[in-house]
Amino acid sequence: MMSAESRSPHAVLITGAGHGIGEAAARHFAASQPVACLDIDCESARRVAEGITEGGGRAIGLQCDVSEESSVAQAVAQAAEWGSGLSAVISNAGIVIRKGLLDTTVEEWDRSLAVNLRGAFLLSRAAVPFLAKSPDGVLLFVTSVVAHIGFGFPAYTASKGGLVALVRELAGELAHLGIRVNGVSPGTVSGTGITAESLRDPEVLNRTVSSIPLGRVATVHDVVAALSFLASPPASMITGHILMVDGGISASVYSMQNPGGRSSSRP
Questions:
Q1: Domains of the chain
Q2: pLDDT tens, 141-179?
Q3: What are the catalytic residues?
Q4: In whole angstroms, what is the distance from residue 220 CA to residue 22 CA?
């Protein structure tokens, strides 16, 4: 972890901070910076913020529906005022529609893009004026390995693929403001709402692990470590990059390399 002296004094803003990757990121960054925890579930956001405060950090919990322009604008402005500015913004809020093409309704498609992609657009637009005032403003998107290889859930896959494109577009567009834009694409991650139920099934867990070349499911802390690096001074020359945190899923057709699969135990 970077020391407090190496971090900006301004706040880090995180959406979807009431649980999973967002909560873990909030607790991590709070060790050295003020953190604004945003979530559509205000109670969860405040719970995380209160836990950070009780541990000696500085945090605020705010309600925010990332698909609604007025909600995003209000929450970002409030967080920036509270934190005397913003040094990093992490767009993490997201939903998954677990349906194939023919079963996905238009309403479900629109909702997926509204939260996962429009939410990132609205957040970016609201946050950029504040990030531009920071010595090293950073905008980070939590996308997914499915943006690169497909997954079987087209609404989710398309929304995450849009985030990858947005990272590359904004990296060039915002560079003159001194804002770096990067993304993290996790594979299967334990400890999130998306995987909590499915990974409790031993058969699903074993099948999932056997498809990951490194032989284990990622943790929220693996993803947070990538976010922390991309937000840090040592990454000051990195922009427009997607950092894969997938254990090698996107790097190879693993089942063809090792048809027998691989157990989760390591030698």
A1: 4-246 (3.40.50.720)
A2: 999 999 999 878 999 999 999 999 999 999 999 999 999
A3: 156
A4: 9
